[in-house]
Amino acid sequence: MLPAPSWIVGCGKMAGAMVEGWCRAGVDLSEVIAIRPSGTPVEGVTTVTSLPLGNPAFVVLGIKPQKLDEVAPALAKRLDSKTILISILAGVEHASLRARFPTAGQIIRAMPNLPVSEGRGIVALFDPAPYDARSVTDALFAPLGTVVRTQSEAELAAIGSLAGAGPAYVARFVAALAKAGIERGLDPALADRLALETVFGTAAMAAARDEDMESIARRVASPNGTTEAGLAILDADLDRLIARTLAAASRRGAELADAARIE
Ligand SMILES: NC(=O)c1ccc[n+]([C@@H]2O[C@H](COP(=O)([O-])OP(=O)(O)OC[C@H]3O[C@@H](n4cnc5c(N)ncnc54)[C@H](OP(=O)(O)O)[C@@H]3O)[C@@H](O)[C@H]2O)c1
Fold first, then answer.
1. Does the N-terminal or the C-terminal CB of the chain have fewer CB atoms within 10 Å?
2. Cα–Cα distances in Å, from 173 out to 138, 161, 169, 195, 199?
3. Region 144-158: what's the mean pLDDT?
4. What tens digit of pLDDT does each residue of 187-233 get?
């Protein structure tokens, strides 16, 4: 059960996926209220359009970083020394959150990714509180997937650019694989299914066998065979492309951090 009462302030794609994950795991959400201006219902929790009365024990801040200064003044007045505030905002640093929510008991930064909806997500946490205060939050996030404790906000940012954004990159790879298959004459629906199953099957196999990616590639590619011919093309650019992709995401995170700083 999430602490009562819990508020999810901004419950769109990411916080909504967390609610889905908690629902799927059978977590009791009867004391959880989602706050979103549109009032679009969030299945499994009560949805309202503005902050309810009272003081929350637990808050997930799920708005866009650009909305922080619109939301913070009213929310800050409701937080007290017993409130645990979890921010999933990309970029926005702990000190920037503490400056806006000075009375909150504990402020934790979390970087989740979308597969939390299936219980297969990553939730990276940055929590400067003493270690013994952390077990509550670990237990709350465990049903969503793998919980990773970070030592610094730089590490959280790096995880954000890899795992937070990662599902979008994997989705693009699957789509590109399917598209290339269609160009080779495959039926589009079949190509989509094959591309997804290939990624899914490879990931499942690697996890089940604890096998590294180099070993998998070597097992597929026989010397001078068809896969090796394909890898010669892919390997020429892929590392550099992915490195530039993550670097661009990191730069954007740094801009969001700058914009939220209060000097
Ligand atoms: N998407 C991801 O994969 C991902 C991954 C990691 C972290 N994040 C972080 O998660 C946060 C949300 O991203 P998202 O992709 O979920 O965006 P989103 O789908 O646009 O959700 C934003 C939510 O904020 C609500 N909102 C807007 N103004 C508000 C206000 N004044 N008071 C209360 N709620 C308000 C919106 O309400 P309505 O629904 O009524 O419009 C919506 O529910 C961002 O800070 C992002 O950095 C996202």
1. C
2. 32, 16, 6, 9, 9
3. 96
4. 999 999 999 999 999 999 999 999 999 999 999 999 999 999 999 99
Task: State in Å: Cα 14 to ligand 1 middle.
Answer: 7
* Residue 85 CB-density burial (10 A; 0-12 exposed, 13-18 middle, 19+ buried): buried
- Cα(228)–Cα(178) distance, rounded to whole angstroms? 19
Ligand 1 binding pocket includes 51 (Cβ within 6 Å): no
Structure token digits, residue 69: 């200064």
Identify whether the C-beta of residue 120 lies closer than 8 Å to the C-beta of residue 96: no
Q: In Å, how far are 58, 123, 125, 145 from 140, measured between CA atoms? A: 11, 11, 12, 11
Report yes or no: 54 and 33 within 8 Å, Cβ to Cβ. Answer: no
Helix (H, G, I), strand (E, B) or coil at 177: helix
Q: What angle do CA 104, 90, 203 make, to 5 degrees?
A: 120
CB-ligand 1 contact for 38 (6 Å cutoff): yes
Does residue 50 line the site of ligand 1, with CB under 6 A?
no
The pTM score is 0.96
9 lines ligand 1 (CB under 6 A): yes
Expressed in angstroms and rounded, the spacing between residue 110 Cα and the centre of ligand 1 is 14
Q: How far is the CA of 35 from the centre of ligand 1 (A)?
A: 11
